[in-house]
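I am hoping you can look over what I have pasted underneath with an eye to the fold:
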Amino acid sequence: MALKHGLSDFLGILPAVLYEYVLYPDGSAELLYLSPSSEEILGQPAEYFVADVNRFWAMVHPNDVEQTQAEDARANQTGELFVSEMRFFHPGGQMRWLQLSSKPTPEQYNGVDIWMGYIIDITRLKEVEGELLQANRKLQALSNTDGLTGLANRRYFDEALANEWARYQRSRQPFALILVDLDYFKSYNDHYGHQMGDDCLKAVANVMQEVARRHGDISARYGGEELVNIAIDTRLEDAQAMAEHIRQGVEALDIRNEYVPFGRVTVSVGVSAIFDQEYASPEQLFKAADTALYRAKADQRNCVRVAQGPERQVFDFTATLPRNG
């Protein structure tokens, strides 16, 4: 055989299991040789697996057996290098990751090509990969998140709006924009200080998140004291109701501001929605919500105004609903 037993001492200290095997045309396999490091890496002496190769497969994760064996069979048919990764239940109680690799040799056994390969433990590599993936996800989340409010940031909102517009173009699924601005926020900051201003902004952001908690909805800090929500699969009537819930929710916080007419922190809200191609672009849709918000600020603040389309007047929605407080 290609591997000589006189190398046993050397092979025993290698951080890999070397093996020789044949795969017969009927799909059965025979293990011809396994190096001594089998006991450390696989948890059983080489003789245990050489006596019955199925003992090895019995220790492989059930979800990995079929795919690995199929890849091995394809490699045997084509004579190409075989490389596969699998989960392995070590007798010591741990689940380990193994990498198998083999290639054909010039020798034969019972008229079938002998394949030579190695098995290495890649568990730590997989752990590091998982740690890196988790770290990258955290970094990605941080890059998309406003550090103060925990909402999405402006960059992420711009991307999400473009993506939602593209989805609308494909599937005609409606969506709405709810633009929220804290009333007299500069006055609040000036009189109560920036720390209380930050706390106030975070409290309002929490109301936004609570109202928009459905899967897929995106709440973002657009800039300064301006927050925005993309309400997925939402038509105008439902978006109006969401906007009013946000307004009422902020009122219910009862954050005192004795320097403004209402005596507490309130918000003005502008709403726009698309369903029937009324808007030519996401920018136009956003401008409609911004115009509605501007009207809310100009009228009386602490109210909701709804854009009825790029060519239509802004509708006073708050006047049709009961007010809290």
Remarks:
- Residues 123-143 form the longest helix (21 residues).
